[in-house]
Amino acid sequence: MSIRHLLCVFFACLTILGCATSKSSNTKKYQVENFVTSAASCHQWFNQLDRIVDRDGARDFGPAMVEDYPFLRVNRFLASFGDSIEANEASYNRWITSMSILNQESREIEILNLSERAVAMFGVGRDELQNITNKCSIHLTQALIERQNTEMVRLRSRAVVPDEYNRLKQVVGLYSLLQFPFSEGISDWHEEAKSTFDRYEIGNPDGLPRVRYTADSKGRLSLLEVKKLISKRDALGQLILQSDDIYKLFSTYAPSFTVEDTGDFDRIGAVKFSDSQDVVIDANLATVYTHLAYTRFEGKTLPQLVYAVWFSARPKSGWIDLLGGHLDGIIWRVTLDHDGVPLIYDSIHSCGCYHMFFPSERLEPIAPPSERIEWSFSPKQLQSNLDNLVIDLTVQSKSHYLASVTMDAGSPVDDNKRYVMQSYNRLRSLESDRGQKNLFGYEGIVKGTQRNERFILWPSGIRSPGAMRQWGRHATAFVGRRHFDGPRLFERYYQRQ
To answer: Is the pLDDT of residue 13 over 90?
Structure first.
């Protein structure tokens, strides 16, 4: 079966799924077959859809929209293929198909999040709206694949992801001068964090009550099973797996979180909207949100398992507290080598702050080119334990800083709880009293989570430093440029032993 036919089958399945899952509407409807599919009508449709989505505030700011190609979106991993994709037809076709799938995912989320009033502006119900969008995606994607020779140069120039640093802010804020005190502050944090890791080697140095959150071990795979599973790849190296297999993969490497618990703000929970439309954390349902991502290392694609947990707040210590505020979160990432053994782990908070690297013994660090540059910070190297792939993370109370990362079960705790895993994409369309709503607002930032540190760190060029933000929008360096989802992030800092 050709790539073209596979694409048709895939989008046909999406259309059927959309019909089954989309909410019905009481607005006036007409049958999809009355919509005449053509390049002109589909571009007109997407223009209308974009206008209403933006006007209604339903835009999803995850993958970047591709200029002049309203049926495509791109992330940093896919954008990294733009300079070499013409070498292989199968890779080129898969590149386009992958961007089309990303767009379809975002379109479905945006349509789900439209208000009933906005849906009524189309003159069709929500399910018909989704079906026409799918139909146009199939048509325009197929046409683009067929025009490979004439479209390649133009598409490559547009399939880019803007970085999260604003150059104008850096110029106005005298970043060239302020990067030096920024660098000093980062060095101080590195020393403090390293000291904390050393102190927590003894277990529980402060004697605080602790709760350990663990995943259900049912469904975990052996390393041999993982190796077989991750060998199923497409032309870009992305995994070709069913949802059940992806869940098993996440279960196999799911970390445990040992959290110092001194208040409600230290309890992992599910993200919800309250009756007043505020973001709240339901600590009665401990939840870890998972996301499958990719990176490139030594010219090969490596899968990444992303685990995100949320807390209701980082409590303020006083009115001048720069770091405290509503909502807090930790993201833990496992990057798998070709044989399924973790090559490197790393972590950030959901603001993009506090980036830590935990390389395995397979890697050695590359020396920084300058003392002033913000380089990889690794408080600890981890030795692979092929008999136990579960990492235990110790999280401090209130600040939610990582204090320890171990390959064993960790020291005894006061209470044990199970967490459930849900897709990170669910955060992009949560139930509320006013219909479905995206946790992440304008430019992918969670409304109401801004921190006072933004008044000091804005010259870095990062939008609202300290605020919680969406996957793909995490700038992780205040000196220089670095993105958590950078496709060649690890190649910059590490090489194989």
So the answer is: no
CA–CA separation, 479 vs 435, rounded Å?
A: 41
Judge whether 115 and 432 are in contact, CB under 8 Å. Answer: no
Can you tell me the distance from the alpha carbon of 91 to that of 240, in angstroms, rounded to the nearest whole number? Answer: 14
Query: DSSP string of 286-340?
Result: -EEEEEEEEEEETTEEEEEEEEEEEEEEE--SSTT-SS-EEEEEEEEEEEE-TTS
Among 200, 213, 195, CA closest to 396 = 200
**Token pair of 3, please?**
């790539």
pTM: 0.92
CB atoms within 10 A of CB 306: 19
**Are the C-beta atoms of residues 53 and 137 closer than 8 Å to each other?**
no
* pLDDT score at 87: 64
Tokens of residue 318, six digits: 């006083």
**Which residue carries 């946790």 as its tokens?**
439
**Distance, CA of 264 to CA of 242 (rounded, Å):** 37
Give the side-chain half-sphere CA count within 13 A for 263: 12
Residue 131 CA to residue 19 CA, distance in Å, equals 7
Are 264 and 312 spatial neighbours (Cβ–Cβ below 8 Å)?
A: yes
Tokens of residue 266, six digits: 């230290």
Q: Token pair of 303, please?
A: 């899968």
The pLDDT of 26-43, averaged and rounded, is: 68
Task: Give, for 394, the enclosing helix (H) or strand (E).
Answer: strand 392-395
**Which pair of tokens denotes residue 124?**
């069709």
pLDDT interval class at 320 (50, 70, 90): confident
Q: What is the pLDDT of residues 115-142, one digit of tens each?
A: 999 999 998 899 999 999 999 999 999 9
Q: Which of 445, 448, 440 is nearest to 462 (CA)?
A: 445
Residue type, 59: R
Whole-angstrom distance, CA of residue 390 vs CA of residue 435: 38
> What does the block give as tokens for 189?
């944090």
Q: How far is CA 88 from the centre of its chain?
A: 28
